[in-house]
Amino acid sequence: MLRSMDRTLSHFRIAGSALLFASVALAASAAPADIPAVAWAEVRLLGGGMLLALVVGSGRVLAALRTRGRGRLALAALAMALFQWTFFAAAERAGPVYAALLSTAAAPLAARLLERGAGGAATLLAAALLGTACAISPPTGITLSLASGACYAAYTVAASRDAGLAATCAALIASGLALLPLAFGAPVAALLSPGGLAIGAYVAVGGTTLAYWLYATGLRRVSPAAALAIQLVQPLATLAAAMAFPGARIDRFAFAAAFLCVASSAALFIPTLTTKE
User: Fold this and answer.
1) Number of domains composing the chain
2) Residue 214's domain spans which residues?
């Protein structure tokens, strides 16, 4: 009974993390318009990473930094930095809903291509469905949305040998330091305004620290198959988060794009789950 309740709670934790991840770009879109994408990337990487280090323990994070290979750490940090930057830039141009939908669907497809190369009916079907979603999305920001998904896939592949919350925290902080020179010109006054501080706190605490903690603790009691299934509903979590945010613009094409993005990811994951069973 207790194990069943614990497993159910773990599913809720992973679902909660999906909602928090999906809400980050929506929250940033409500901030003052003159705060650039790179500033929000730094808030999430350094702010959220350092808060997560307090939760995990600085000793464990330092150990993860020392034990990870320098090449893998550099690649993972660069990919994470580019992901955050391109994702917030895409949200500025395409809107947070479309940016999150396309980036979420592009990531597993790019990861499949990085790991196995081109080819395969499932890969071609996923690419076709994602291409259709792009065709009905606003034209501005599509390239950045797809690039952000590809960067996250590159991070996932580079960090696949170093799973765990401490390693994730180390990658966040390292990527934040790598991106820091580009953030020096950010308008500090707008970021330190009451609205900027409130949204920055949410991005760092809710969208990063709490989200990664929920995801990591949820995975302790959830099978890999269930974890893959959660990824299928990320686009739906994006729409749910958007409907909870006042002022978020959702048109009928967003629902169609979300369906296509779910179908694209399902084309990749469902054959894998069937084979494992």
Assistant:
1) 1
2) 8-276
